[in-house]
Amino acid sequence: MLEDNKEKAIQRIQDACAVPFATLFYLRLLLERLDMLKRLNFKVDIVDPMIGAVKHALQSQPQQGKWARVVVFHGYPVDKPDSSVARFPRSRVTAVENSIDEVLEEWNVCEGDLAICAGSTEGDVIFGEKCLHRGAKVRLLILEPTAIQLAEDYKDLFTKEWAKRSSALVNKNATEVWYHKDELGDPVEAASAQGEHFKPGARKGRGVFHLIDWSRNGNDSQSETGEAN
Fold first, then answer.
1. Angle 54-187-174 (CA atoms, 0-180°, nearest 5)?
2. 29, 68, 81, 175 — which has fewest CB within 10 A?
3. CB-based contacts of 53: which residues, under 8 Å, 6+ apart?
4. How far apart are alpha carbons 216 and 9 in whole angstroms?
5. Nearest CA among 104, 118, 27 for reference residue 64
């Protein structure tokens, strides 16, 4: 673009829109940046067809599902046997299952709703199982574990049992899985990957969301309701 090579600049934008990891978030971000260049009156004769190429790519994306409500879950994993801090003791698993069930019952989560969680902890598995039982669609946002994490997990028979439940959850017809690397690509810094496993911008419009935050200990939770843009 800086060389005033219009055809080459447009081709590069078209190529960028055609890569496999060109998600809605990626394309919308690209469109916003091009719009900013247009507002600055920067090489508008080149930027306009670039914007057209990105809009065409956005229109070609698969249509997103529309949900009555979205329920998001976040919480800690079950404590390791040698854990020095009690956040989610193994003895509280049944109590947590019952509490999650009560919250979902209060919100009347059912068919037509979307339940989202990371799919990487025992709490995620419980939440996913409960939502599927109620007829909701479950979306797991998976951050791929490292080889070291996998090796540590499978030393523990308790964790092996949860791995089986997690696998069964993933294989359900009403479960869809979005993998961190597939949706967002490789992180700029490996250390930052833990914070990059949500895919923003799934759809436009206002809708109701619910949040269950299991972030303190095994017998306490927070829940809230609001609207999302």
1. 75
2. 81
3. 10, 13, 14, 17
4. 51
5. 27
Q: What kind and span of H or E run contains 60?
A: helix 44-60
| Domains assigned to the chain | 6-60 (no CATH), 69-228 (3.40.50)
List all residues 6 or more positions away from 5 whose beta carbon is below 8 Å from its beta carbon: none
The answer to whether the beta carbons of residues 132 and 172 sit under 8 Å apart is yes
Question: What is the rounded CA–CA span in Å between residue 2 and residue 54?
Answer: 19
pLDDT in tens, 10-50: 888 888 888 776 777 888 888 999 999 989 988 888 889 99
H or E segment to which residue 81 belongs: none
For residue range 40-98, list pLDDT tens digits in order.
988 888 889 999 998 988 888 766 667 899 999 987 788 887 778 888 888 888 998 99
Nearest to 163 by CA among 178, 172, 153: 153
d(CA 38, CA 227): 32
